[in-house]
Amino acid sequence: MPRSAxxxxxxxxxxxxxxxxxxxxxxxxxxxxxxxxxxxxxxQHASQNHEITDRAVYEIAQNGDDVVLREDGVxxxxxxxxxxxFEALFKKIHQRAFAALPDDVRIHAASGIHxxxxxLLVGNPHSGKSTLAIHxxxxxxEMVGDELVMLRDGLAAAFPRxxxxxxxxxxxxxxxxxxxxxxxxxxxxxxxxxxxxxPTVFGRPWHIAxxxxxxxxxxDPDFGSRTKSKRSSKIDMVRLVMEQSSPPRSGRNNWIGDLxxxxxxxxxxxxxxxxxxxxxxxxxxxxx
Amino acid sequence: MQDSSRTxxxxxxxxxxxxxxxxxxxxxxxxxxxxxxxxxxxxHTAAILLELCNGKNQVCDMPELLRLAFDLSSPPVEEVRExxxxxxxxxxIS
Lengths: 288, 94
Prior knowledge:
By secondary structure, chain A is α+β, with helices and mostly antiparallel strands. Chain A is built from six helices and 19 strands.
C-alpha cells in the first residue's frame, strides 16, 4: 500500500502539479505563478505502469523575505533565492523517488526501446548522452531517458525525467530548433543554461516500462569524427557499466550479479561517438 | 545440459572451466569465461570453491576445507553442495 500523502493546510496554494516517478507519486503546490511555470522543467507525464508505493507532497510558499519548501508538511529548506529553492526541490523529488526503489541499481545511461527490449547508452557525464538521445528521438527512435536507468531482477526501466540538454547543444540538433524557444530552461549548478526536452516535444509517446536489455553501447566521445562502433567483451563492459552504477540503497547482495546478467543478455559495444548522423546509422544497424 | 547430481559422488574432483579469469570486486568476484564471452558474479564462498575445483580436490573434502578457510564451527556440507550445483549450472565447473 502507498504511504499516505500529507493532507495539511494547502487551501490557499493555487497551483498543483501531480506526476509519477516510477514507485513515487509527487505532488507540488505553490501559490506563485512564476514558480509554477518553472515546474515545467521538472514535471513530466510519461505513462508508467509501475506500482506506486510512496506519495510525497511538496509546498513552496513565501514566508516574509524567505521562500520555504515543505516536504509532507515539514520544512525541508528555506531560501531567499527562489532559484536555489528550485534546485533544492529538484533534489528532494529525485531523492524521494530513488528511496522508493531501494533495491534498484542506478546506471548512468540514456535509454531507448527497440523491438520490445531496452538499449542503453552508458557514459560519463559530458559524454554526449543527452545530445545523442535527443538526436535519435528526433530521427524517430523510441528514446525514453537521457540520464538514468534503474535495474532490478534483470529488468531495466528508464528513470522518468525530462532530457536536460545544454542550450549550446541545440545547434547540433536541427530537429529541435523549432521547439527550442518555448522549452523550459534553468541554470544548472555549473551555471550553464539547460533546457528540458521530452519525447512529446516531437509528438511521440513516452512510455516507461521494465524490460530486458538487448544492447549496451558505452559512449567514448570522439567529437568531430565519424562515429564508429566495435564490439566489447562482456568483462570489459561489466567494468565500464560498474563505473557508471550506484549500488541499491537497501544494500542488497548480488546487485553485481544483476549487472552481469544484464550484460550477458545484451550485445555489447563501445561507440566512439562523433558526428551524430553517423551515430544514428551505427546504432540503427547494430540494433537491426 | 550439465548433470548437477554429480555432486552426489563424494569422490568426484571437479575442475574449473579452462581459461576462467577471476576479478575481485566489492562483496565478491566477477568470473569471466573468455571462451564463451560470459561473466558471472560469485560471492566469496563460491569463489573459494571455484578455486578448490582444480581437478584434485574431492567433493567430500570441500566442506572441511571451507570450514578451515572461514574458521567455522562445523563443515558447511549443504551450502557447499548448493554452491557446486550453482557452479555446474553456470558452466564454470565440470
